[in-house]
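Appendix B. One record, verbatim.
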Amino acid sequence: MANSAIPAEFVTSTTNGTTSSRDTSRWWQWVLVYPTLAVTLITAVPTWIDHIRAAGLGVSRGDLAQAQEQNQLWQVNLDCARSQEIQRIKTKRNLEIGAQVCPSGDVLLLLKRPEADQPTFRWVSARTLEREASVLLGPTAAYAEPREGPVAQVPRSVINQRWLKPGLLKQRVQQAGGGCVDLVINTYTGRVGQTLVRCDAEF
């Protein structure tokens, strides 16, 4: 009886050791046999991160780099955006268009379509202007037809501004009629929210 018990214990311990070593070898075999899968998973991590960042900013992954550049240009040219006025004109198509050139060479563009409640801001970097001057400054079919009569100028003056949080800039703008509006600008997308306020209201 004693002799039969010994082999049973021996078999049990041997079986446990074999199972453990088999699990270990399976794990290593998985990594070694399927290196392509491991490389694919590792290289996909930046893509996942970009998707998460883009979703957080409210843009598509393809527009993420441009949105980040727009935000950076707002930060670099923040003093310029406050100290200078954007002279806007209203075209015969009822578009409001304005531009502001900063000492850095970067240009802040403003466009308000007739159907839009708020304008959209977009920076054009000096580097882009130098690289694509012929494209940006050349004639386009949309504006090829001659204009008739003068265009109306719509002055604006930024009297105060501050960051609400990263990516959201608040500006108080005094309009030609004497009233003021508070703009909340998404510096990634250029979208704007607007509130009519008294010029002496708390900012």
